[in-house]
Design a protein that fits this description.
Layout (H helix, E strand, L loop, with lengths): L6 H12 L5 H21 L3 H17 L3 H25 L7 H19 L3 H18 L3 H15 L7 H17 L3 H23 L23 H20 L6 H11 L2 H4 L6 H5 L2 H15 L3 H11 L5 H25 L1
């Protein structure tokens, strides 16, 4: 930072001009220009948090004259600079930080979300929720803080046009992964179940609007419709495999009908032999992957610890990161249980 230039004094000087009662709007326009120029100087000096404070003042100026679009843009610049400041602080302190700038980022995003909701911009508000949640979860591993923003994004995107339904499913997948990482396995299981049901519902509605369909029932799908194509196929199988693995790991005392059907589909030798199988995810799945999963389910049911590691190695490249994480949990649980049983039998 330039030691010969007092940025705090420059900041206060601009603020003082706004306190004058006369020529209100011209003063606001001048203040916006001066705050913007000062923020650019601070950016060059890599004083990102001070630059962010300038952008916040710019946003207040735009708010005072009712220019909500420019206010939103100024707040986004402020959030960007606070993120840069947080990154710089973490590097300088070897990742020892109180996350003060990150808290400022969250506060600004909350303001942005509220501002867009007030303008009835629900889609943009949902996008901002996802953007912040991604920052918190992926960059800073703050899973508990990210979860409410994914949930709010889903809420804001509900009852939207069909083009947004894919967006909702993608957010649900992110939320379910965080629920797994925070050990909320039953909620994750519920979300994966909702995803498989909603994809089937979307597919059926788009294929035959005269047919009836219960969202929680995956039976009899093949009797009426052909399987989905493209990205929907990938998302359906991804959610169903995650649901299966969570069912094995959590081992709920009372299975819902759709969960019972999932277990039966992956543990029956007749599933692939039956050309008219009515379990839609299996119809969309790679045959080899299904056989590996079927073998894994049977190995778990029979407690065949000798086969589990071999199957895990073969399954690993076919699964997502979160699925492999759950797979590890299952293996650890079974091996620890077997070890405990061996000790008790001695």
């Amino acid at each position: 930072m330039d030691v010969n230039y007092d940025y705090n004094l420059a900041f206060k000087s601009i603020s003082e001009k706004l306190k004058k009662k006369f020529l209100r709007k011209p003063n606001v326009t001048d203040a916006i220009d001066e705050y913007t120029a000062l923020s650019k100087q601070l950016d060059q000096e890599e004083s990102f948090s001070l630059s962010a404070a300038c952008w916040q003042q710019v946003a207040k100026c735009y708010h005072s004259v009712g220019n909500f679009v420019s206010e939103s843009a100024a707040l986004q610049n402020a959030a960007k600079n606070y993120l840069q400041s947080e990154t710089a602080t973490a590097i300088e302190s070897n990742n020892i930080t109180f996350n003060e700038d990150l808290l400022s980022v969250m506060s600004i995003y909350d303001e942005l979300i509220r501002l867009n909701c007030d303008q009835n911009e629900r889609t943009l508000s949902a996008k901002l929720c996802v953007e912040l949640a991604d920052i918190l979860a992926l960059k800073y591993e703050k899973y508990f803080e990210a979860i409410p923003y994914y949930e709010r994004a889903i809420s804001l995107s509900s009852n939207s046009e069909s083009s947004q339904q894919l967006h909702v499913v993608l957010i649900q997948l992110k939320l379910a992964a965080l629920k797994v990482f925070t050990c909320d396995y039953l909620t994750a299981l519920r979300i994966y179940t909702e995803i498989t049901n909603s994809i089937c519902s979307i597919y059926l509605i788009s294929s035959n609007r005269s047919g009836s369909f219960r969202g929680s029932d995956l039976t009899n799908l093949n009797s009426f419709y052909s399987k989905p194509q493209g990205l929907w196929t990938k998302l359906l199988t991804q959610a169903d495999i995650s649901k299966l693995l969570l069912l094995i790991y959590s081992n709920p005392t009372k299975l819902q009908p759709e969960h019972k059907q999932t277990i039966e589909a992956y543990s029956s030798f007749q599933t692939l032999a039956n050309t008219s199988t009515n379990y839609l995810p299996v119809m969309c799945m790679n045959r080899n992957v299904f056989i590996l999963l079927q073998s894994f389910v049977m190995a778990c049911q029979s407690n065949d610890t000798n086969s589990l590691h071999t199957l895990q190695k073969e399954l690993w490249p076919h699964l997502t990161d979160i699925q492999n994480y759950i797979l590890n949990l299952i293996i650890d649980k079974i091996f620890n249980s077997s070890y405990t049983d061996d000790l008790l039998s001695q």
